[in-house]
Sequence to fold (238 residues):
Amino acid sequence: MQRPGATVDKTGSHPQDDAQGEALRAPRYTDAPERIRGLPVDHRGFPVPFFAAWIDGKPDHRVVDRARLGPAVLKDLCWICGEPLAGDRAYVMGPTSAFNRVTTEPASHWDCGCFAASACPFLTRPRMRRSHKGLEAAEVTPPGGMAEHNPGVCVVWATPAFRPTLHRDGKTRLYEIGDPTRVAWFREGRPATRAEVIEALDEVIDTYRPRVAAAGPAAAEQLARYTDRVLALAPAPP
Fold:
């Protein structure tokens, strides 16, 4: 549900009129990937991703335009730039998704995902929390929900193997992803160190320990397997 009185473009085009275009700044990231440079920019010069809603003729990065989800999935489009993936499939995720290999957002190109991980303000500022100011009546969450705070590190995870599925609530779309062909970890817009990645993963693993202890030996074995496989993907020691 969008904010009352808001208009969101659902045609696949970006509704920039002349008046708005005059207010837009030059792009901040002139060295961004070509597909990113082809996106419109907001008044700050930030590229407007494919998934972002346009409300009252202006882009709002906090609001996911759910009308974009169907085309992204059915037409195999990049969630960030909106162009065909053509087999180049990567997921931008937090450490929890890297641990359990379940994510909530469709795939992106590898270079688009790496750009987002290095430039998106929410992903590059570890203490940032999402602001919902002015969006009390708008749907701001992507399918499957979203983190309300930056987890510190994020990962771009390339894999050809994925399976759409549903959350146990029966309506939330999720994506189960397979072994990665390559990963890139980021923190504060730069490559994350091994210590930073392991610290973030340890925090995730610790959240599972109470439930695993209550569930018994089989759950403990599964936790150990998941822990080993994700730690193996951390950056190599310096």
Notes: Confidence is low (pLDDT under 50) at residues 1-24, 128-149. The radius of gyration is 18 Å. Residues 194-215 form the longest helix (22 residues).
